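User: I'm writing a tutorial on reading structure tokens. Could you give me a worked example: one chain, its sequence, then its tokens, then a sentence or two explaining what the tokens reveal?
Assistant: Sure. Here is the example chain.
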Amino acid sequence: MLEAQVQPTVAQIILQQLGSGVFVVMTGARDFTNTGNGLSFRLNGRMTKQGINYVKIELNGSDLYDVSFGRIRSGSVYKDLETLTDVYAEDLVRLFEETTGLFTHF
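And here are its predicted structure tokens:
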């Protein structure tokens, strides 16, 4: 009997590309949400540049990523601080580290 292979979601792939468990431990990322075609999560804004406490990474039509860094205050008031479009998977970690000031690995 053949077992069906389950395809990982886009959100799972993005988290793997960021570094999976090591990424979570190093950055303190939490409240992960599968957005359907991407991943969003929260950070401790006191530890980041510009007080960034929200990140959203979405797969776009070019098979590249659009990455938004922002700040959520008072539960739902969102301020976009920086948006990068057409980001290659291999550039996600570098751009995350440069923009937030957080390291994703040892």
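What the tokens reveal: The beta strands are 30-34, 38-42, 54-59, 65-73, 77-87. The first helix runs from residue 10 to 18.
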